[in-house]
Amino acid sequence: MKKIVITEFMDPQAVQALANQADVCYDAALVDDAPRLLSQVRDADAVIVRNRTQMRGELLAACGAVSVIGRLGVGLDNIDLAACEARDIRVIAATGANARAVAEYVLGTAMLLLRGAYRSTDAVAGGAWPRAALSSGREIGGKTLGLVGFGDIGRLTATLARGLGMRVLACDPMLQPHDAVWAQHGVQATTLDELLAQADVVSLHVPMTSATRDLLSAQRVAGMKKGAIVINTARGGVADEAAIAAAIRAGQLGGAAFDVFEPEPLPAGTSWAGCPNVVLTPHIAGVTAEANTRVSALIAAEVARALAL
């Protein structure tokens, strides 16, 4: 019987579906027990991970019989793809399965940060009435959304944003200006610097590579539209967090929502501490009850297919 090791949380129905066909070792905390994890993968045929399990170095070397790695998500920067290819290990990502969760996070936080009126609960409940102070929030309709990266998540975000009345710009070096995808989604293709100069909301949707590290640098932050909102659901390291926090404090930028950081967890006392109009979340933009079900079902089915179960 084939053995599948699942190192982080997965939908129980998907785990059971695999357990009906294979010997499954499932422990959502296995990622935090390195000795046990190494022991379990030594005779495994497949490993299923999220973003915290680092499939590289000693751990990957221990995977002597592994032929497939399932990724419960889309980012692959925690997996040594070159080493996997050299060893003929297939890597399967849950492409598209969590796109709606991320797209809704982007637009939800954009509306919250633009409006700036949703943090008055304690004041109002306590008898205060800060109506004048909270009457200058901005609507999302008519604003310009700039998408840095235009893959599955960027495209769904664009569709939802246009439904809210937003104008959408996007840049993606993997696409040509004449590609049909731009017109299909009602999006204007542009350069990164032009996008940053025009967008009221900038949302990052690129993988972490040597080319995207510090893509939203301090220099580029300085060239952004005054009052703009920055949203990062991509990867920590793509944006200069200190420069963005400083720009918010200085009144140049209007706020930020960050779901990803470098490193993770975010250490105490960082540049975000005390920064106004900021939403910080622990890498959960793509994790909802519905997305977890979709992602888990997709990876369970694809891993079972790869193992010919």
Primary descriptors:
5-stranded parallel beta sheet, alpha/beta, Rossmann fold, globular, 309 residues, 2 domains, 7-stranded parallel beta sheet, 12 helices
Helix share, percent: 25-40%
- How much of the sequence lies in strands comes to 15-25%
CATH architecture of the largest domain: 3-Layer(aba) Sandwich
CA-atom Rg in angstroms: 21 Å
Number of strands: 12
Oligomeric state, counting identical vs distinct chains: single chain
- N- to C-terminal distance: 9 Å
Number of domains: 2
Class by alpha and beta content: alpha/beta
Form type: globular
Instruction: Write down the secondary-structure element order.
Output: EHEHEHEHEHHEHEHEHEHEHEEH
Sheet bearing the most strands, described?
7 strands, parallel
Total DSSP helices: 12
Provide the CATH topology of the largest domain: Rossmann fold
Largest sheet, spatial ordering of strands: 8-7-6-9-10-11-12
In words, what does this structure look like?
The chain has 309 residues and is α/β, with parallel strands linked by helices. The protein folds into 2 domains: 3-97 and 289-306, NAD(P)-binding Rossmann-like Domain (Rossmann fold, 3-Layer(aba) Sandwich), CATH 3.40.50; 99-280, Rossmann fold. Helices cover 34% and strands 15% of the residues. The chain has 12 helices and 12 strands. The chain has a 7-stranded parallel sheet with strand order 8-7-6-9-10-11-12, sandwiched between helices. Strands 2-1-3-4-5 form a 5-stranded parallel sheet. Strand 4 (68-71), helix 4 (81-86) and strand 5 (90-93) form a beta-alpha-beta unit. It is globular. It starts with a strand and ends with a helix. 38% of the residues are buried. The model has no long low-confidence stretch (mean pLDDT 96).
